[in-house]
Description:
Blueprint: E1 2-4, E2 7-9, E3 14-16, H1 25-33, E4 38-40, E5 44-45, H2 46-50, H3 54-58, E6 69-74, H4 78-89, E7 95-100, H5 105-108, H6 120-133, E8 138-143, H7 153-162, E9 167-171, H8 186-193, E10 201-204, H9 210-220, E11 224-227, H10 237-247, H11 256-274, H12 276-290, H13 298-306, H14 310-324
Parallel strand pairs: 3-4, 3-11, 4-6, 5-6, 6-7, 7-8, 8-9, 9-10, 10-11
Antiparallel strand pairs: 1-2
Amino acid sequence: MIKIGKITLKEFPVLLAPMEDVSDPPFRYVCKMFGADIMYTEFISSEGLIRDAAKSVKKLDFNEFERPIGIQIFGHDIDSMVKAALYAESVSPDIIDINFGCPVKKVASKGAGSGIMNNIPKMIAMTEAVVKAVKLPVTVKTRLGYDEDKKEIVEIAEKLQDVGIQALTIHGRLRTTRSSVPADWTLIGKVKENPRMKIPVFGNGDVVDGPSAKYFKDTYGVDGLMVARGSYGNPWIFHEIKHYLKTGELPENPDIHERVRISKIQLERSIEWKGERQALMEMRKHWSDYFKGYPNFKPFRIRMMQIEEAEPMFELLEKIVRYYDGIDLSKQTDENAPISDLPSTSHQ
């Protein structure tokens, strides 16, 4: 069993990463359906939260079905982070998570996210202040270090544990490492091997399927995994990982009926949460991943990018089911393989 404060998880939990404009309540809902053990909100600006900025406050929303749920906050000012943590605690999540990992320039350049890794004393002081301010367990998500000259995660992990965090997730890249560069799990393994570390250590980076999950688990001995990009349009990944770790076999891929069913659930919940127009706009980044690998999907995708009302979208999804029903993707070697009766992109 894995313990985070009073939260008890099954052995080797699989977590959904906090991802801006991705891990919103509708997407978290479908990931939970397939076994995500802990999920986190999109990261929330401490400054926005304490100023009651509508976008930041709305990110505090979650459904009871999602528990255990962590609210992730970021910022560069210690006092603002403490106030934001208390604000987040007031909506009764299970965890307060601190983002020390975001590499985006507009965040890191201000000394927030992974930018604070250039000032380790401040990073530790901020963490300690948040831990002391709230009653909920505090966790941290961070990276290996600020840059090639400051790969300090082994020392940082100890210091974070010493000021009271209850779990640590480490992304296997530096602030300066692009996502196209493979994650380096070596130092994640060294953190886990450190006999002084007593809290759960979770690994993140390039966990994209069952085999990669097993490799990272077996090679680096982490207590669990966090999935980020591997979940895009693929909430089934949580079931796949757990099934593969248990049996050594991959489960069957979801067929077109299942893909449409789950994407419709996400869309329906998005409409309820955001309104029709915004939901349709934001779902556009998910469609290609939901239907990745289907031959000649481009005309459907083009139409999906054009639709601005719910009813035509649901009608198109039903057309996609009829169109691809019975196609065996395992026998498709070319995603551009021609198939008959492609839909018109101008008169749907």
